[in-house]
Amino acid sequence: MPVDKISSATTGLPSAWMTRIIAAGGHIGNATEIRKLLGEPIPQIADPKTIPPHILEMFEPGGILERMRKKLALISRKRGRKIIPARNTIASVDEEDNLYVGVDFLEKYGDNDALIAAILAHEWGHMMSDLPRGIDWSRLSWDELHAIRREEEADADGFAGRALFLMGYKPDEMIKFLKELDKKRNKKVPCHKYHNTPTRVEILKQSYEAEQRAMEVARRLFFGSNVGAKVGRVLSIG
Q1: Measured on CA atoms in the order 120, 102, 127, 25, is the torsion positive or negative?
Q2: If you average pLDDT over every residue of the chain, what do you get?
Q3: Domain range for 51
């Protein structure tokens, strides 16, 4: 579905906003200053002695997390730094581009490569920030902080959708995961951090499809059936 034909009834947002999301880089929505101001938990580094060996292997050189890091670094041209086992989080990044991945999350979903790739890609989207650093966020109102955070998370979802295509995964597992989280969420407590689940799902789908279309156009341009004939004509003219 083309970006400019998104149903505003589904997303509650204008098509121009969605176009920007799937085209732009992400922001650092996990900034420690913002997390503290919003009262969100800060990831705690896990003691290696408490981590099951098969989970610890995922963090080692050659492990799945390192392999995915290399793919994301190639896609984004942003290397990132350490991948750190953590508690109190699914995944998050800090201002130095260290990536914290939840041990409890991996114990439950460690065999789901597509989901792990999506989670890492979302956090990598936060690393692609153009949000100014060193800002005194305390001067903003709660509504302004929440609005910034929702935009940040939406940008990260947009990057994740595109990155998943380039990494060779589909967004289906991430979409399923988001819907599972939504079912468990207490609907009486409003969620200020993210846009609603249908919007996040739409961002993931459309950013994935946008990258897929771009790759198909590139393939036709450079490897189409008539490329050889075009090259032959150019050479004969020369």
Answers
A1: positive
A2: 79
A3: 13-237
